[in-house]
Amino acid sequence: MNNWYDEIRVKTEPVFQEIINHGFIKDLMAGTLSKDAFGFYVNQDTLYLAEYTKVLSQVGIKCYEAEETQFYLESATGIIEVEKALHQVFLDKKYVDKEVSPTCELYVSYMARIVNNYSVEVGLAAVLPCFSIYKEVGDYMIAHQSNKDSNPYQTWIDTYAGEEFAASVAEAIKITNKYAATASPENLKLMEEVFLKTSKMEWMFWDSAYKQEKWAV
């Protein structure tokens, strides 16, 4: 399979459409998203990324080539630096909360389980939507905005629509495609399953922020 990503991307188009039509994304693009919803999101994103960087490091270590390992380790480090800068701009102290939301807990725990218990190609598929979907969402918002000069969230949008992030996404896709090309039928099935699930969890993450999700009990 030479281009696994293109094939799986077609299958996740309904999920992507649900994402770009979600109230959180539409309000973010319009610049009308409430400060409370965005503050909740940025705080949970901070907690999510603290674990995602560990997962990226783990999947990188399982890669066969030194350059691939280096890419994922550098991606983990780069995420920390970029997000730290964004969070300094957007994370007001009043929104800082160390309690992980149910959706955030589900997402990071699921990825950690997959990366720790399955083959490298399955782990690569699990972590990829956080790369690819953010780029597509950033590109979509930039293409459909009419308020780039006045949107209070423009710095966030520009980060994920930028060339540097696009290059990282392209590399992650390239590596995943390489491993998919030699994966067994069983692992290809698992790759599709986990990619679909983590794509849906991207939608869930934004939905949880829009609702400012709390533990029920």
Characterize the structure shown.
This protein has 217 residues and is an all-alpha fold. It has one domain (4-211): Heme Oxygenase, Chain A (Up-down Bundle). It has helices at 4-11, 13-20, 23-30, 35-62, 66-90, 102-117, 120-144, 154-160, 163-180, 185-211. The protein is globular, with a radius of gyration of 17 Å. The termini are far apart. The relative contact order is 0.19. The model has no long low-confidence stretch (mean pLDDT 94).
Give a short account of the largest sheet.
none
CATH structural architecture:
Up-down Bundle
Topology as a string of helices (H) and strands (E): HHHHHHHHHH
* CATH C-level: Mainly Alpha
Number of domain units:
1
Q: What average pLDDT do the residues reach? A: 94
Tell how many strands the DSSP assignment holds: 0
CATH structural fold name: Heme Oxygenase, Chain A
How many distinct helices?
Answer: 10
Q: CATH superfamily membership, which one?
A: Heme oxygenase-like
**What is the CA-atom radius of gyration, in angstroms?**
17 Å
Structural class: mainly alpha
Unreliable spans are none
Q: What fraction, in percent, of the residue positions are helical?
A: over 70%
Our estimate of the beta-strand percent is: under 5%
Distance between the termini: 46 Å
Outline, from the CA principal axes?
globular
